[in-house]
Amino acid sequence: MNAILQQLRFTLIASCQALPGEPLHGSEIMARMALAAQEGGASAIRANSAADVQAIKKAVSLPVIGLVKRDYPDSDVYITPTLREIDELAEAGADLIALDATRRPRPGGVTLERMVSYIQERGLLSMADISTLEEAVYAGTLGVSCVSTTLSGYTPYSPQLEGPDLTLVQAAAAALPVPVIAEGRIQEPGQVQAALQAGAHAVVVGSAISRPQLITRRFAEAARKAVMLIHGNERPY
Fold first, then answer.
1. From CA 137, how far away is CA 132, in angstroms rounded?
2. Are 144 and 178 a contacting pair, CB within 8 Å?
3. d(Cα 139, Cα 120) in Å, to the nearest integer?
4. Average of pLDDT values for 111-125?
């Protein structure tokens, strides 16, 4: 097994991402977020955009999993959808490149097979983001370095669950010869433990760590529900 993947075994990977329009959007802010994640014990950082990858690489000593989220008019694939994004991430210094590894048509007709081989040609590791067991198995046949359950629940044909798809994690871990990374809707420490017990090589946590507006919303909603239980429809003013 590759040394970086071995380093990630049984650990937490922090996904430090903020999209345009979100309060923490910006490479400098994400670099600070990554530094905080490193101090908290994360083993690696998953980051969106070449600019963020480059900034984070300067701020932390951890491996960086890079991806580029970019919309194209001729495809629903938006996580590292073309060879262009691979080039950007390689130049930025990403240690692994995450890409949509579903069987959906990609922009410009580029194939998943070509995407994986191109990452290999650049001398980099690939993380295949999948949404079903069938996609995971197929990605494994292409020689990807690892598989992540990132897209379960985010394709129309995969299970629409509120929490992580631990059934997929368990099935993929049993079926594949490469590491399986659990990712997607992991909100609580107990879910990290459950994912590792299901066979995950490592666990990615994103919004529950790096999106404070969503974290605050959960606590604010808990407060609202408590008020409703105690006082009914009348607020205690």
1. 9
2. yes
3. 14
4. 97
Task: Determine phi and psi for 129, rounding to 5 degrees.
Answer: -85, 120
Q: Output the six-digit token pair for 131.
A: 């949404």
DSSP H helices in 158-211 = 166-175, 189-197, 207-210
Of 141, 68, 65, 128, the residue nearest 102 (C-alpha): 128
Q: What is the pLDDT of residues 154-199, one digit of tens each?
A: 999 999 999 999 999 999 999 999 999 999 999 999 999 999 999 9
Contact (CB, 8 A) for 112 and 106: yes
Residue-wise burial string across 118-127, b where 16 or more C-beta atoms lie within 10 A, e elsewhere: bbeebebbbb
Indicate if the pLDDT at residue 210 is higher than 60: yes
Question: What residues pair up with 44 in beta bridges, in sequence order?
Answer: 13
Check the CA dihedral 153-156-157-162 and report its sign: positive
For the entire predicted model, the pTM comes to: 0.93
